[in-house]
Amino acid sequence: MEKRLAPGDRVELLAPDAVRRHAEGLAALLVDAVDDGASVGFLAPLEAAEAAAWWAGAAGNRDVWAAFGPDGAVTGAVTLLRAGTANGRHRGEIARLLVHRSARGRGLGRRLLAAAEAHAAATGLTLLVLDTQTGSPAERLYRGAGWTAAGTVPEYAADPAGVLRPTTLYYKLLAA
Predict the structure, then answer these.
(1) Percent of the chain beyond pLDDT 70?
(2) What CATH number is associated with residue 33?
(3) What is the pTM of this model?
């Protein structure tokens, strides 16, 4: 049974300066994800300083949404990276959809994904792509949100323990 969002839960698009301001909370979220086994580009153990440096580098290079709990703590995040080529201006990539273990089951992942999708469509993107570890709980979320599996690549990325795992690529066409 899914927990309902707390009255103070909110999701917001962060300006680059806000990403830097919330770097500590975003870093703690990323460390939590890696500690929980999420294959999000980092090996365990992930140091908070490395996670904070990644978020600092993300500021201004991608759109970042954060979920905040009633106490103001960062409870989730997602990023949208736009294609940098002239022939790819219509597409973007959803990356690092993270929900802290303490905040799971409240619909935050769905809300974060929906916010990024709506913004992408409103800003002219018509295609989104993402990849996720095959067999991960995230696959159910993406399929439920209307994403289509395009295929699986064996040994695509290492999990936090360094073991190569398959990755499933997904896409979603947005209304023009």
Answers:
(1) 95
(2) 3.40.630.30
(3) 0.94
